[in-house]
Specification:
single chain, 136 residues, alpha+beta, TolA/TonB C-terminal domain, three-stranded antiparallel sheet, two-stranded antiparallel sheet, 4 helices, 7 strands, 29% helix, TonB family protein, cell inner membrane
Length: 136
């Protein structure tokens, strides 16, 4: 008959039970949404602004994990190609804090509406008018 010490049996039993425990789950890291860091308005073409031409451009913008736009698609044109180009160029220069999932930065798509509202009697427009020769 093989006799083992009670202490050895208790140790073996303790090891067996400890090996059956479920692993401790990693703490859940909350996701974060994209946040604007630097989003200056686009250059408004002076000739259009002074001619009282405005409009709204709607864009779909993919912001990459580095926080920079990686793709821009115009989903709603202003009807004025120069304004559409200005909006596209402006948003491509923007900077964001990227969205995160499980603590890692990820790409996220956002919709960006951009309004071009002609200024009321802008100093630049008045200077432009004064510098143009009178046309008779």
């Amino acid at each position: 008959m093989n006799r083992q010490s009670p202490l050895l049996l208790i140790s073996v039993a303790a090891l067996a039970v400890s090996g059956c425990r479920a692993p401790v789950p990693e703490p859940e890291i909350p996701s974060t949404e994209i946040a604007a860091i630097h989003t200056p308005p686009p250059d408004y073409p002076l000739e259009l602004a002074c001619s009282d031409i405005g409009g709204k451009v709607v864009m779909q913008v993919v912001v990459g994990p580095e926080g920079r736009p990686t793709a821009v698609t115009i989903t709603g044109s202003s009807g004025v190609p120069e304004l559409d180009r200005a909006a596209d160029a402006g948003v491509r220069a923007w900077e964001f804090k990227p969205a995160t999932r499980h603590g890692k930065p990820v790409s996220q798509t956002i919709q960006v509406p951009m309004n071009f509202t002609p200024p009321q009697e802008s100093e630049l427009c008045l200077q432009r008018e004064q510098s143009e020769p009178d046309q008779l």
